[in-house]
Amino acid sequence: MIFKKKPAALKSTEEMKQLVSDCNLRHIAFIMDGNGRWATRRGLPRETGHSVGARVFKKTVTTCRDWGIPTVTAYAFSTENWKRPEKEVNEIMRLLDSYIKEAREDNEKNRIRYIFLGDKSRLSDDLRQKCEYLEELTKDNRLTLNIALNYGGRDEIVHAVNTLISKGADRVTEDDISRCLYTSASPDPDLIVRPSGEYRLSNFLLWQSAYSELYFTDTLWPDFDEAQLQLAVIDFSNRSRRFGGV
Ligand code: IPE
Ligand code: IPE
Ligand code: MG
Description:
Blueprint: H1 13-22, E1 27-31, H2 35-41, H3 46-66, E2 71-78, H4 86-105, H5 107-110, E3 112-117, H6 125-137, E4 143-151, H7 153-166, H8 174-180, E5 191-194, E6 213-216, H9 226-237
Parallel strand pairs: 1-2, 1-5, 2-4, 3-4, 5-6
Helix pairs in contact: 1-9, 2-3, 3-4, 4-6, 7-8
């Protein structure tokens, strides 16, 4: 019988657990970019890239959980992504809908707390209700998965300030704003990973990324596998974080 061997460079789950704990990686965030190019290069419709990307997303979350990373955030759809053709937007929403269905069914097994970051009011009533139901169903689970959906960093800050104004504030502090962000339940991300060879944040976690470590790779998201994830975490473990100190 032939066993498929792991590449020599791949560390075991136990080794990765130790590394994650040693470098205190509490929150990892992904800008899941490159689905369209991945598909186009293969002569496939962009939607196929999103479908493969959704599978990679699921796998990546499981791996992060196995390594003991308590909070994962994934950028699924930005406030600017509505500019895309209707067919593509509809397919992304359909994939999210089926992801949510699976998450609901797998709740007993996975024990993940789902939080949707972003303005849900622009989603269809049906999808918004499914998001809210999943948040409620999983609210006592320990490991957090934030899914940024109709999310924009600027929109989030404006929303936070308006929330404070509506409560009567005439001055605000950094803590006030942090408390009113969609991410209020999570620490700031330690590491933000962006695949696809683009070197920008594209309106992702603008406030929260003040001291995040950024990791870029040319790999397109549908090709992002465990080896890629290990490289990102190993790179993070070698960073020197000073937060403005010495
Ligand atoms: C990221 O992949 C997924 C979403 C923005 C929803 P893209 O669709 O942006 O893929 P590229 O960047 O066009 O290759
Ligand atoms: C960022 O990717 C948004 C998501 C991954 C959901 P985009 O493809 O929208 O970003 P730009 O347009 O390359 O900056
Ligand atoms: Mg893109």
